[in-house]
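SEVERITY: medium
COMPONENT: batch folding queue
REPORTER: lab tech (J.R.)

DESCRIPTION
The queue accepted two submissions in a row. Attaching both inputs and their returned C-alpha cells so the on-call engineer can compare them side by side.

ATTACHMENT 1
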Amino acid sequence: MSGIQRTALVLTIIGAINWGLIGFFQFDLVAAIFGGSSSAVSRIIYGLIGIAGLVNLGLLFKPNEELEREPEAHPTR
C-alpha cells in the first residue's frame, strides 16, 4: 500500500468516525474543532475526506496480491 493510499485510508477512517458521531450523538467533530461546518477549514477537511474516499474506492477493485502469487514449490524429500 502506498503512502497516498495509507493517508487516504486514515482520512476515510476519520470521516467514518465523524459520521458515527453525527449519527449517534448529533455531534460534528470536524465542525467543533475547526469553527463550524461552514468555515473554510472545515470545508477543506470535508473535501479532503471525500477525495480520500474516492482514492480508497480504487482499493476495492485492486486484485489481492496473495491470490495473484503462484504457490511456491517445495522440494519433495
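ATTACHMENT 2
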Amino acid sequence: MRSPLKVPSTPPPPDAESARRALTALRHEVAKAVVGQDSAVSGLVVALLCRGHVLLEGVPGVAKTLLVRTVATALSLDTKRLQFTPDLMPGDVTGSLVYDNRTSEFTFREGPVFTNLLLADEINRTPPKTQAALLEVMEERQVSVDGQPRRLPSPFAVLATQNPIEHEGTYPLPEAQLDRFLVKVTLPLPPREDEVRILAHHAAGFDPGNLAAAGVSAVAGPADLAAARAAVAQVQVRPEVLGYIVDLARATRTTPAVHLGVSPRGATALLATTRAWAWLSGRSYATPDDVKALARPTLRHRISLRPEAEQDGVNSDVVLDQVLAIVPVPR
C-alpha cells in the first residue's frame, strides 16, 4: 500500500520578537560590506517599517549605492538601480506602452519602478518633468498609464541619493516631492579609524560588485517586515508625547531663520518613525527620547530656510537643535 504523499508544510509567519531579532541582525550583516554607517542603516530600517521612502545625501564615495544594495541583499528584496540623468524621460522610470507588430496592439512594458527597492541614483540630476514621474509612485504605489493603474510590488520604497555639493546641472527637488520622503539620511565622511578599516577591507580583496564573496546573506525578509509593521502599529504613545511632537513642529514655524516650517504631515511622519524606533529598541511604548532620536532625519528636509539664514551658514539641523533645546520635554 502506497504511503500518502506528504505535502510540505508552510512555515508559520514570524512573530514580532523573531522579526525584531532579524532586523537587529541586519546591522551586523550590512557592516560586512559598509563600514561605519550604522545610523544610515537604522534610518533605512525605520523607513521600511513605516512604508516610507528615503533620501540619502552625501558627497561622492561614501557608499550610498553600496549601502542600498547591501540592505536589499540582507533583506532578500529585489532592487533595481536607475541612474537619473538630464535626458531621462518619465517613461524610462515608470514604463510605457509599446506597439507589438505581431499582435497589432499596444502592450505595457514595465519600468524600473516595478521592484521592491528602487535606487534612484542622483535624483536631482534629472529635470522636474521626470522627477514628477515618481510622485504617483511614491504616494499611491502604483503607475497609471493610459488611464489604467498598475500596482507596484509590496514592499516598495524609493531610496534616492543626491550630492549636496554639486549645483551645476542639477534640479533641486521641489518641496512637495521632498515631503514625500519619510526621512532624509545624511552620510558623512568617515572618521580616520573607519577610513583605515575601509582600506583594509579593499586590501583584503573586497569587491563592491560581489556582495556574496563578502559574506553578505539574507538575515530577514518580507515576512519579517510584515510582522514588524504589525507590531509597530501597536506601540502606545501617551498624549504628552503626542503634544511634544506637535510642539516641536509648531516651534519650527516660528523660528526667525525659517521661511516654511514643518507641516502637520511632517508631525505625522515623526510620530510614525518614533513608534518604529521605540519598537526596534524593544519597547511597546514611545518616549520623548525616541522623538529626539528621529527628529532630525524625519524633519530636516521639511524645513525651508530664509536666504539670509543660509548665507549666515544656518542649516535645518541647526534649527532643529535650537528647537529641541527650547521646547519643554514632558516628564
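NOTES FROM REPORTER
Residues 264-280 form the longest helix (17 residues).
No errors were logged for either attachment.
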